[in-house]
Specification:
single chain, about 325 residues, alpha/beta, 11 helices
Length: about 325
């Protein structure tokens, strides 16, 4: 029996372009067929990639890479760039405008809804106000077009809201609050829960009510990381007053990377050799909003050797398994 193939694309802000370039290289060399995947899974910026590839009349992998520069410059460029983003955060609580992020997502996704997408996907989101029985609380939320008797309401969510909520990283954006299905929803970046996007994919794929349910032993997963490493904020070495507004961002980045490491360890334990983590560390780290670094990141991703992952794909993603 062939393995059910899942590609997980972690969060990482503008560094998501590294994952996009890896995917582009593997698809264009016929090592991966997007149409043969069981599903795509994403967190934060990874949701942007999965949404663009999963929507009706999807973008090509080449288009996704080219779009990153345009999307990032629109999302992270502020009218008064001479004012540091930490000043915006200190004054308003967030560095960037969530409403603007939603407008940009709506421009590229239109009125496309979750259930309209032909390619299966899973998006990991953190809901800060989710209905749980008779009360509301913060909870993980896996937005997916896999059908179950209990997620029909999810199929009608706008993909633009999914992207906005998935990318609303604390300190960078305010939570995305919107009205749908008679309720107000308040979503933030799922990276605070599972930045690697692996756990959500496995949870949905093996869920007993999923009509396309598969066994854990039938899953093969490729995680396309984006070159990040432990986040060190230079502000921590300075006794200046501006260290205070940066502390929240440092905590968010540290929690995100800690959660990602935990998720990857889980996958190595659960899937064993059927899990491959493609990760090369960039020579220099950069902030999640440093969109001017995208050309450098693209060059880095283009230079990395993919021989090992290609050999793994031949064993677990190859059509030869069907014979």
């Amino acid at each position: 029996m062939p393995h059910h193939k899942i590609i997980a694309i972690p969060g990482g802000g503008i560094k998501g372009v590294v994952s996009a370039v890896y995917l582009k290289r593997l698809v264009n060399k016929n090592h991966i067929s997007l149409d043969e995947l069981f599903c795509l899974s994403g967190t934060s910026t990874g949701v942007i990639i999965t949404a663009l590839l999963a929507k009706p009349q999807p973008f090509s992998v080449d288009d996704v890479v080219e779009l990153y520069q345009e999307l990032a410059s629109k999302v992270f460029k502020r009218p008064n760039e001479w004012i540091p983003s930490w000043v915006s955060k200190l004054c308003s609580g967030a560095s960037y405008d969530t409403k603007k992020l939603n407008e940009i997502a709506s421009y590229y996704l239109g009125n496309t809804r979750v259930g309209d997408c032909p390619r299966k996907f899973v998006a990991t989101i953190h809901s800060t106000d989710e209905q749980l029985g008779s009360y509301r609380a913060a909870a993980p939320l896996f937005i997916t077009n896999f059908k179950t008797p209990f997620n029909q309401h999810i199929q009608d969510f706008k993909m633009s809201d999914v992207i906005t909520g998935a990318c609303a990283a604390p300190t960078y954006f305010y939570p995305h609050q919107f009205h749908h299905g008679g309720h107000w929803h308040k979503w933030t970046d799922g990276g605070v829960l599972d930045n690697a996007s692996c756990i959500g994919a496995v949870s949905v794929a093996t869920h007993q009510y999923n009509q396309d349910r598969v066994k854990l032993d039938d899953i093969a997963m490729l995680c396309l990381e984006n070159g990040g490493h432990y986040y060190k904020d230079p502000a921590d070495r300075k006794p200046a007053f501006w260290r205070v507004p940066r502390t929240g961002r440092l905590i968010i980045n540290s929690l995100t990377q800690g959660g990602q490491t935990l998720s990857l360890k889980h996958m190595r334990y659960l899937l064993g050799s059927r899990f491959y983590d493609l990760n090369y560390t960039t020579p220099e780290d950069c902030d999640l909003d440093a969109y001017k670094e995208i050309p450098r990141l693209i060059e880095f991703a283009e230079q990395q050797k993919l021989r090992a992952v290609k050999a793994w794909l031949k064993g677990y993603f190859s059509d030869e398994l069907k014979q």
